[in-house]
Each structure stands twice: as C-alpha cells, then as structure tokens.
C-alpha cells in the first residue's frame, strides 16, 4: 500500500469512527408543559386544584401545519377539558388526535407552538407522569410542516409532584449538615 493510500485509509477510518460516535442534536419534540412557552415540564402542586397544561411542539425548525399524538396519564387524574388551536382536530387527547391547523405555527429556535391545552385535576398523590405517545395510526408522534411533509417527533414527559408532608427540615437545617 502506498503512503497516499494509507493516508486516505487512515482519514476514512477516522471519519467513520467519529461519525459513529457523534451525537446528533435532538430533533422535533412534542411535550407536555406547564407554561405556554414550553419551559417547565415539571410542576410541584401544593394542593389539589385544576391545572392548565400545554402540549407544545419544539425544535421542529419548520412552520407546523398539523400533528398526530396522544396523551397518557394515570387514570386517577381527571381530564376536565381540552382545546386545540384553530383547525380540524380529529379524535381526542386520550385516544389520539390528528390535528390540521388553519394557520401554520412557527417553530424555529427556541419557539414553541401550542398544539393543545387541557385542564386536569390531579389529586394529592406524590408523583405522576404525563407522556406524549404516538397516535394509533403512527409509529411515533408526528408533526406535519406547512407543505404536508411528515416530521417524526420525540414524545416528551411532564411530571407532577407534591411536597412531602413529612419533611420537616428547613434549608438552614440542611446547610448545617455541611458545616
């Protein structure tokens, strides 16, 4: 093997090995959030009360014209209402909704598009997970851009917690442990 061939072989091997280990940035996500800007997927409840919750699309880098997904949450959380942006929703959040939007929503950079809002009434349980899952007709949660091109998305979680009523230590008590 000539020096040139060895050099090319080494470069190709390095490129292939680097490519196999490189992590791609996360793509489009449909998640459950507790604010309309999709910043908080975690919420600590101090008392049981109706809670406005959002299903948002993030990191799609596209104008979103539709979506298909479903929400899964514990049966002891009561769904009080659900609403969708202007368009045609087929189905519901719990069994699966296919949503065609009248006006495409921009999802670029840190933007978030609200695909649904729903109000839940969680009781005083210590922990609950709400999850976005695929619509029964699809293998993954999906978004569609304004041209109708389907974008596979990752379904993300939202978490509800309650403070531990048995916890008596204050922050000052915790700091004294490390003095």
Give keywords:
8-stranded mixed sheet, Immunoglobulin-like, 179 residues, 5-stranded mixed sheet, 2 helices, globular, 13 strands, mainly beta
Structural overview:
The chain has one domain (29-171): Immunoglobulin-like (Sandwich). The protein is mainly β. The termini are far apart. The protein contains two helices and 13 strands; from the N terminus they run H-E-E-E-E-E-E-E-E-E-E-E-E-E-H. Strand 10 and strand 11 form a beta hairpin. The protein has helices at 3-21, 171-176, and strands spanning 29-33, 42-44, 51-58, 62-72, 78-83, 87-92, 96-107, 112-121, 127-133, 142-145, 150-152, 154-155, 157-161. Residues 11-25 have low confidence and may be disordered.
Secondary structure: elements and pairs:
Layout: H1 3-21, E1 29-33, E2 42-44, E3 51-58, E4 62-72, E5 78-83, E6 87-92, E7 96-107, E8 112-121, E9 127-133, E10 142-145, E11 150-152, E12 154-155, E13 157-161, H2 171-176
In short, what is this structure?
This protein is mainly beta. It has helices at 3-21, 171-176; strands at residues 29-33, 42-44, 51-58, 62-72, 78-83, 87-92, 96-107, 112-121, 127-133, 142-145, 150-152, 154-155, 157-161.
CATH second-level architecture = Sandwich
Low-confidence stretches: 11-25
Main β sheet profile: 8 strands, mixed
Overall geometry comes to globular
Instruction: State the CATH topology.
Output: Immunoglobulin-like
| Element-by-element helix/strand order | HEEEEEEEEEEEEEH
Helix content: 10-25%
- Averaged pLDDT: 83
**Straight-line N-to-C gap:** 66 Å
Radius of gyration, in Å, reads 22 Å
The structural domain count equals 1
Q: Determine the strand fraction and express it as a percent band.
A: over 45%
Main structural class:
mainly beta
Level-1 CATH class name: Mainly Beta
Tally of individual helices: 2
Number of strands: 13
């Amino acid at each position: 093997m000539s020096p040139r061939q060895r050099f090319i072989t080494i470069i190709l091997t390095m490129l292939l090995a680097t490519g196999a280990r490189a992590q791609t940035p996360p793509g489009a996500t449909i998640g459950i959030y507790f604010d309309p800007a999709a910043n908080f997927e975690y919420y600590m409840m101090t008392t049981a009360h109706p809670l406005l919750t959002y299903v948002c699309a993030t990191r799609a880098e596209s104008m979103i014209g539709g979506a298909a997904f479903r929400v899964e949450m514990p049966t002891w959380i009561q769904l009080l209402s659900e609403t969708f942006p202007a368009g045609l929703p087929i189905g519901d959040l719990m069994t699966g909704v296919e949503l065609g939007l009248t006006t495409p929503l921009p999802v670029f950079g840190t933007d978030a598009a609200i695909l649904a809002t729903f109000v839940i009434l969680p009781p005083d349980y210590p922990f609950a997970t709400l999850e976005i899952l695929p619509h029964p007709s699809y293998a993954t949660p999906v978004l569609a851009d304004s041209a109708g091109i389907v974008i596979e998305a990752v379904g993300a979680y939202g978490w509800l917690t309650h403070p531990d009523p048995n916890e008596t230590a204050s922050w000052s008590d915790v700091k004294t442990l490390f003095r």
